[in-house]
Amino acid sequence: MVAGEPVRVMVWNEYFHERCRPDVQQVYPDGIHAVVLDGLRRKLGSQVEVSAAWLDQPEHGLSVERLERTDVLVWWGHALHEEVKDEVVERVVRRVWHGMGLVALHSAHASKPFRRLMGTSCMLRWREAGERERVWVVAPGHPIVRGLGVEYFELPASEMYGEYFDIPVPDELVTISWFQGGELFRSGCVFYRGRGRIFYFSPGHETYPIYYDAHVQQILANAVLWAATPPGPYTSEARRCEPLEPLEPRG
Q: Measured between alpha carbons, how far is 53 from 206 in angstroms, rounded to an integer?
C-alpha cells in the first residue's frame, strides 16, 4: 500500500454454489463477491480499488503478480476448500507475512490459508436453522467497529456457529455472537501474523442475505481499511548480524 493511494482490495470467492443452486442464486444472483464488492464501493468510494477472483480461474485468480498488487484479500470459501492448490495457499500465506491484509468470511474458517496461518484445525460447532443472531460489540474503540453506532445488531436469520472454536487465542476480540438456540461464538477475531493483519468475521451464509446488511457492510469496510498495513520492512529469514556495540573480549 502506498500512502495517499487507494487500498487495493481483492474479493476471492469459490463462486460455485451461486452458479449451481437456485436457492443461492436467488439471494446472490451475481455471486457473493459482487455484493461484498458493491458494499465496499458504496462505503469507501475512492478510498479503495476493488476487484474479484474465483476458484476456476487460472491459478484461482491468485497469481504472484496479482497478489503483489493486492493490499487486502477478502476470502469467501465454503464447499471446495480442498480444491485450492497448495502452491497458491503458500503464496497467499507469504503475502500475509509480508503485509497483505486478510479478511476471512464465515466458512473461510476452514479455508487452507486461514488454517495454515492459525496452525490449528479452526473447526467449530454449527447448525443451519435460520435462527436469530445478535452480534455484540465487545471492543467499542476498535477501528473495525468505527461508525457502527450501536452496542449490538441483529440478523434475523443466520447459520449458527458455536464454541468451541479451535483457533489460537485472538490477539483482539471485536465481536461475539449470541444465537437464538442459546450458543455463543467469538464472531469477530483479530490476529497478527508477521506484518500482516487478519480479521475473521463469521456472520454470513450463501442462502441468507447477510452481506446486504448495513452493519455488516460497515464492519467489512472498516476491516479493509484496518487490514491495509502501511509499507515497511519485514524479513522472515534467519541471518547473522554484527553487534551494535563493541564486545569486551572474554577470558
A: 17
Q: How many domains does the chain have?
A: 1
> Where does the pLDDT of residue 2 fall: very low under 50, low under 70, confident under 90, or very high at 90 and above?
low
**Grid coordinates belonging to 173:** 476480540
Q: What is the CA radius of gyration of the chain?
A: 19
Domain with 51, as residue range(s), is 7-122+186-227
pLDDT at residue number 58: 96
What is the DSSP secondary structure assignment for residue 181, as one 8-state letter?
T
Identify the CATH number of the domain in which residue 23 sits: 3.40.50.880
For the chain, the distance separating the N- and C-terminal CA atoms, rounded to the nearest angstrom, is 51
Span of 16-25, 151-160, 230-239 with lowest mean pLDDT: 230-239
The mean predicted confidence, pLDDT, of the chain is 94
The sign of the dihedral angle between the CA atoms of 85, 106, 141, 145 is positive
Q: Are 200 and 221 in contact (CB under 8 A)?
A: no
Are 7 and 48 in contact by the 8 Å Cβ rule? The answer is yes
d(CA 66, CA 12): 12
Q: Closest by alpha carbon to 103, among 232, 208, 13?
A: 13
Residues paired with 208 in a beta bridge: 205
Looking up cell 563493541 gives 246
pLDDT at 231: 61
Q: Are 161 and 202 in contact (CB under 8 A)?
A: yes
Pairing status of strand 152-162 against strand 125-137? antiparallel
* Helices 214-227 & 32-44 angle (0-180, nearest 10): 70
Beta carbons of 181 and 159 less than 8 angstroms apart: no
pTM reported for the whole predicted model:
0.93
